[in-house]
Specification:
This protein is mainly alpha-helical and 274 residues long. It folds into 2 domains: 136 residues, no CATH class; 63 residues, no CATH class. Helices cover 47% and strands 11% of the residues. It has 11 helices and 7 strands. It has a 3-stranded mixed beta sheet. A two-stranded antiparallel sheet has the order 1-2. Strands 3-4 form a two-stranded antiparallel ribbon. A hairpin with a 2-residue loop joins strand 1 and strand 2. Helix 4 packs antiparallel against helix 5 and helix 5 packs antiparallel against helix 6.
Length: 274
């Protein structure tokens, strides 16, 4: 009988210890964002989606509107600060850093809005080492060039991170999420190259000898980061899958005779005026 009581006591003690460990692990998970959720069990990026869905208008952002909700933006930035980025999966990390770049850029613009005409009016805009993610400070340049471009090695990120300018990719009306980030990146690239003012346009003309001349004009983003887009072929090879059907047919037909030009880059603020 004494032996039975002793064994029972030991088992109860072990179960209690295991429960305590599980409770502790659950608390850590909520705080670190391992499952890309916050401590309320909601998506880590739900607050950012709420802001974007409210203030994005046709790919432009109402800075006047989001300025009124700046406390909500600050709450989201606090979530980014409290996330243990070392425990994020690849897709969680990719979504996290894209959202972080975009949210930090919005906060940067708000710090000078409405006095500025564009992000280039802000000194050292991309080198300010003041953006806290996972308890560490980063610059926008570090996030783009040392994390997103190096760690994730996906050129489509160039059509997801938004530098607050008209010729930048249009800002999405929802945050990036781990389970949809691949589809979102493809959607963003297609939207970018479907825009003749931002991403791609084609013209047919003649040379001085009367020979037909086929020209495509593409975003300077592909010039600035040509090494990203030419890693597995040419720039044309890269953009082809993302072009609208009509433009795809044009490029395929004249691929060997195409000349490439670059669209003028408009650095004015991507402000959706209310």
């Amino acid at each position: 009988m004494k032996t039975f009581i002793l064994i029972t006591a030991i088992l109860i003690s072990q179960i209690a210890c295991q429960k305590k460990e599980l409770d502790t692990d659950a608390t850590k998970t909520a705080k670190t964002g391992v499952k890309a959720v916050n401590k309320q069990g909601k998506s880590l990026h739900a607050g950012f989606t709420a802001l974007l869905s409210k203030h994005v208008k046709k790919g432009m952002l109402s800075y006047k509107g989001i300025q009124k909700d700046e406390a909500l933006l600050d709450a989201y930035l606090k979530e980014l600060e409290n996330t243990d980025t070392s425990k994020l999966t690849a897709n969680q990390g990719l979504a996290f850093w894209i959202n972080a770049y975009n949210a930090f850029t919005i906060k940067l613009i708000l710090s000078k809005y409405p006095e500025i005409d564009g992000i280039k009016d802000i000194p050292k805009r991309w080198d300010l080492d003041q953006w806290n993610a996972g308890g560490k400070n980063y610059s926008l340049n570090h996030i783009e060039h040392k994390i997103l471009r190096v760690k994730y090695d996906d050129p489509r990120i160039h059509f997801a991170i938004v530098c607050a300018s008209i010729s930048c990719p249009s800002i999405a009306n929802r945050a990036y999420e781990a389970d949809t980030v691949d589809a979102q990146l493809t959607q963003g690239a297609k939207a970018f190259f479907a825009n003749s003012e931002k991403g791609f346009t084609s013209t047919t003309g003649k040379t001085f000898t009367g020979k037909a001349k086929y020209t495509i004009s593409i975003s300077k983003i592909l010039k600035w980061f040509s090494e990203d887009f030419e890693r597995n072929g040419s720039k044309i090879d890269f953009i082809l899958p993302f072009l609208p059907e009509k433009e795809q047919a044009f490029v395929k037909k004249h691929k060997d005779d195409l000349s490439i030009d670059y669209l003028t880059y408009n650095w004015k603020l991507n402000d959706a005026k209310d």
